[in-house]
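Bug report (template v2)

What were you trying to do?
Predict the complex of my protein with 6-deoxy-beta-L-fructofuranose.

What happened?
Run completed; filing so the output is reviewed.

Input:
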Amino acid sequence: MQLKQQQIIDYNTSAKEELNNNVNFLGNLIEKKGFNTREIIQKLADFQVAIPSWALGAGGTRFGRFSFGGEPTSLEEKISDIGLIHQLTQTAGAISLHIPWDIPKDYNAIKELANLHNIKFDAVNSNTFQDQSNAKESYKYGSLANISKQIRDQAIAHNNEVINIGKMLGSKSITIWLADGSSFPGQINFQTALQNTQQSLQEIYKTLPNNWKMFIEYKPYEPNFYSTVVKDWGTSLILAEGCGNKAYTLVDLGHHLPNTNIEQIVATLMLKGKLGGFHFNDSKYGDDDLTVGAIKPYALFLIFNELVYGMQNNKNNPELSWMIDASHNVKDPLEDLIQSLDAILIAYAQALLVDHTQLQQAQQENDVTKCQELLQDAYRTDVRPLIQQARLQSGGVINPIDAYRKFNVRNQLIKERGTDTIATGL
Ligand code: LRH
Ligand code: MN
């Protein structure tokens, strides 16, 4: 489903005047504080987030999965759905593929289709946490960490294949997340498992093209419930440094034990020049993969505060990869993704309103109250008009969720695809 540009223009007409007033009001407020409204709006317009190919249908848990109808059943339909989100938000300019869930059948056709929708290919994801029907070896007891060299070699070969698929699509990075670990004490030798993982990653790293990056994603538990080999940022950093300059740590916001100070992890990784990118989502308890900003919006703001500081001060850290990693159990997947994009831009815009000069001054003077006031003043600023203006000037709609419903998108997709189509993915 693709919208005509005229539909978008007509949709925005009624909301334009009010937006203009809001932007002028907010502009006066933040210009008085020394910020440049136009510059901030441009940064928001330029900020592109990759949509996961595995999160365009209904997610589920072991207790059940409830379909939405009109779910995409091919990579072509997934790219078309991301294209629609991008038309509305002008922020979803990339897709992150998961292999083998989304192996292209016709590479040229897929690249043309993505081009048609102004969508680039961000990181490709390998999958050695499930056994493929035709696989010789099983990953039941691990993949790159497995005690068996045959199984490690099979997993290494799969990652090399994923890199080749990415090369054919124009992707420039691979994300490696390993479920490897144990569910009972004594089940594995921690040191052997970590050494095997390091050696396996170094094997994969050898085939990484010069202009590529390897993202090593960590996670404390699930599907293993006693130990995970790549359990935290420190382990991921050790492994990345053990590989080389093209290897980085990927931070999935849901992969932290409760109350972990993620913004401090982000600051540390940026200082080391080893932060590669993000899987944005939110969570209350575990790896809940909920809508970004739905549970801990202040924590998300604090993370972006460290990102804005790092992007200004850590020139040794590469350009970051921004990706969503979510699963939709009760919300329309496309609405959920649109809300996540909005929450990401809101946190970024608020962080762009932190006066770092004053903050450093207050930190020098140990004026703790002033430090908090400076952060919370930015966080408590309603920045939504800046995001709406960024979308409008990029050719998107002012209110994407409202437009998504006004254009009756889900029912259109159900009419086209039926009610019981199931998308590959989580
Ligand atoms: C693991 C993870 C990883 C993906 C998977 C879909 O929990 O976050 O990024 O491979 O979800
Ligand atoms: Mn993830």
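What did the reviewer find?
The chain has 15 helices and 13 strands. The pocket of manganese (II) ion (ligand 2) is lined by residues 177, 217, 252, 279, 325 (CB under 6 Å).
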